[in-house]
Amino acid sequence: MDVGTALAGVQVVKGAFLLLTALALTSYKWPVDKPLSDSATCDYIVIGAGTAGSIVANRLSEDPRFTVCVIEAGGDPPLETEIPSLFAYLPKTYMDWNFTSEDDGYTAQYRQQTYLDLPQGKALGGSSSIHHFYHIRGDPKDYDDWATATGDDSWSWQNLIPYFIKSERLEDPYILNSQSSTYHGTNGYMGITRESRDLPLKYLEAFKEMGHKIIENVNAGDTLGFFLPMFTIFGGVRQSSAESFLSPIKNRENLFIMKNTLVTKIVIDENLQATGVECKTSDGTSITILAQKEIIVSAGAFNSPKLLMLSGIGPKEHLESFGISVVSDLPVGENSQDHMAVILVHQLEETNDTLTSDPSQFPVPTFVGFGAINKTQSYPDYVTLNLISRNSPAALMQLCSSVFSLHENICAQIYAAGEGREVLFSVLSLGRPLSRGQVRLQSTNPEDPPKIYTGFLSATLDLQNYVDSILDFVRVTESSYFTGVGAQTIYFDFPNCSSATNIRDYWECYVLHMMDTTFHYSATCPMGTVLDSSLKVVGVNKLRVVDASAMPNLTSGNINAAVVVLAEKAADIIKRSQSCE
Ligand SMILES: Cc1cc2nc3c(=O)[nH]c(=O)nc-3n(C[C@H](O)[C@H](O)[C@H](O)COP(=O)(O)OP(=O)(O)OC[C@H]3O[C@@H](n4cnc5c(N)ncnc54)[C@H](O)[C@@H]3O)c2cc1C
């Protein structure tokens, strides 16, 4: 099979899903569309019903005295978003904003196109309706650094634990009977389960032999080691924020969700107070909705800074270059962070068995590792998500070319490696990269995408840290299991790397060829500079940002759990400020 055939197969399945979507099989689950008329007034307006927006809308509408209006650019998530094994079919569809990175002369230079696809969800649930289910809170240091950046200790790991607990409904007898059960909730809205297949266990032992710990519960604060991850899957169904936080409250009378409606501008009056939003409805009509109390921007790490900038909040020079009057001169869009992925592939034992896929589970057995380069350190430098394939070259091809978009020559080599073999497909990222990107306006047209500069490897130390992390990770080939089955690291044949004279040079070159995103866009409107520690936009009243853009820094590992905890705490802050009025 070649990449073209693999992608054509994916397109056929996507086409079939599109036909199914017309039947609206799952529409009964979601809140009905409640279109608002021009000049309608709500107490709270929430822009975007993604991971964060759905949570904020749920918590604020718990108080029946207040009306909460949610304006979401996308529609209902279709059936295929619910089924865990189908995640590879969700990007590059109408549920995706289909953003791409700018060609910065460095990112993705060795791909067919010199940009990266940056999928982001456009539906109720936002990116949690298309994400990959890993539920990993990150390291305590990540949150303690939030507390330092904001000068507010309530953002520390210890002080956020009650919010993690509040959101969760964990179903895992082993963890719930262990000492770390106190870190988990069993009554929250968001169902959580854990990898239960045995296949990853031999890998955990192999990494243990190399000096890594096997961690029982990475979400309890001790992160350095390898472990079976938790997932936002429950009862075989995706636990998007829409499924978890909106579906159960779809009949609340004070909750108004307007779907397929794009917010184009935040209206800010002469007293620097946010008073409403301009939007374009599904039939193209422009209307204004007014907010009595507050506006909460939860449009995600690319669209939130774009919307602020279109509304006059952002770097003065940049806004003025588009003729936008400056309301508050802030470094919006300047601290963009993401986990750059490097794909590593190991070929293991021969096998004719193919794993039977259970649609209700994460598609393949998986394990995760947090490693440190400096072995005396107590927090991780790198994170690896590891997927196991057995005699399934087509599944590997889908990962390579559809989930990620690597060069077709590389995908062809991965396909060949997977025929009749077990393969370990690993996604390695620095937990806390130093590189920073930027989000900028392309134009003043709200329908144009923003310009996104990933900034990957712009901090030169990151490249060295990737190489050190890879060298630490691939030591596993010396373990008994790997040597026993004659495992091989796949050293791809990159023409540009032929001049590498030593292994470090080769891995440097490798990183440049095998880079992609892990979809953890964040920190573009961070607390500490753009926002204060209660997520209020500096210099503007009645306006907060609550989503991945509000993080001062990335958390190690996948970030959905961090966005959830941020939104839970934000809702509490807003409710408390209400009761003080
Ligand atoms: C492909 C993919 C895989 C991922 N895998 C994982 C994983 O396995 N584990 C993990 O922890 N994290 C994962 N993530 C990351 C995680 O899902 C996101 O970080 C998280 O969902 C971001 O939440 P958010 O609230 O900031 O934004 P989003 O959830 O993206 O929500 C933003 C919402 O705002 C809406 N919106 C935007 N602009 C406007 C506008 N102008 N008007 C109206 N509505 C608007 C959008 O349509 C969207 O619904 C993944 C992400 C992607 C894309």
TrEMBL record:
Highest rank taxon of the organism: Eukaryota
Cofactor: FAD
UniProt keyword terms in alphabetical order: FAD, Flavoprotein
Record Pfam families: GMC_oxred_C, GMC_oxred_N
Cited PANTHER family: CHOLINE DEHYDROGENASE, MITOCHONDRIAL, GLUCOSE-METHANOL-CHOLINE GMC OXIDOREDUCTASE
Family under the similarity heading: Belongs to the GMC oxidoreductase family.
Name this polypeptide is given: Ecdysone oxidase-like
Organism, scientific name: Vanessa tameamea (Kamehameha butterfly)
